[in-house]
Structure formats: structure tokens, C-alpha cells
Amino acid sequence: MPAIVTLAILTAWALLTSALYFIQGEIPERVYQLLSQAYGAANLALGTAIAFWLGSSRSSQQKDAQISAILPSVVKR
Q1: Is the pLDDT at 57 greater than 90, yes or no?
Q2: Whole-prediction pTM value?
């Protein structure tokens, strides 16, 4: 599930980057402000997703999975 969320965040970030940098023509000021705010939120979300995969949250999730796998054999004793 975290991989799907990360891909969705990355896709949104790429679309917003394209919208802000590659669309030719005049963008109304109000729309530009909304896109800028959305881009900032997408940057924050992407940073959080990267921190999850490289940080302790991912390691903690793996540790919990290992403990859950070992626990039934320990409890049977």
C-alpha cells in the first residue's frame, strides 16, 4: 500500500511540474496561485514519501513484519 501512495504522489508531482513549467500561454493569476500551492503541497508529500522509504518508518514496518512472523512459533512453546 505505501508503494501505491508513493506512486500517486510522484504522479501528482510530475503533473504539477509539467503544468507549471511546460504549459505555453498565459495562466490567470488566481489559477497560477492555486497551482503553486498544490505544487508546494506535492513537494512536501513527495519529501515525506521519500523519508518513509529511506528513513526509520520503513525499517520499523519491516521489523514489525518479522516479529509477527516469529511470534506464533514462540507462543506455541
Answers
A1: no
A2: 0.64
